[in-house]
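Researcher: Good morning. I'm working through a list of sequences from a screen, and I'd like to move beyond sequence-only analysis. For each chain I'm collecting a predicted structure so we can compare shapes side by side. This is the next one on the list. No need for commentary yet; just the structure.
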Amino acid sequence: MERDQIIFVGPGGQRFAIKPQARGQNEIQGVVQVSVRRTLKEETAEIPKKGLEYTYLGYDYAEVTVEIRVWKESEFTKLQRLIQLFRPKGKEQKAPEVYQPVHPTLRRHGITHLYIFSIEEPPYDPVRGWTATLQMREWRPSYKKVKVEATQIGKKGGQGSDTDTGGADRDGTPTSQQRAQANPPSARGVQP
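Model: Good morning. Structure tokens for this chain:
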């Protein structure tokens, strides 16, 4: 893949490409410039009973700038359609749409999912053509921590707890012990 092209894979699997030699309907003839900004994340926490602070280092979510430049008016109309897809859909949209970009710079930084939070379109310049600058942020799924009570076999969890399934597995199916108790072996044919 060349450095001056980028491919976006949308939520429905639809692909959009901006590249110097466009051939398809979802390809825009132009060039892109991608820059990544990653900042250091520092957090401090007090350790109980010791009065100390500890600094955790890591990296915050990346901010990506994608500058798209086209020179033909026909490509500009395609770019406008692409930007309309990136725009938020109004109040009914709860979260931004996440895109999977394909570009060597993003791959080098390990960025696999982005969402757009800013679009800038300066006026037409006869020398530079039409430009659109997309400000994007890295997206990673976040998982909620679920508090689960430890129980002993044969005993139920606390009254009214969210994890109380009547001794069944999480999906509601009976455990092997419950199935065995529900279907005891036959007493016929057993010699005392």
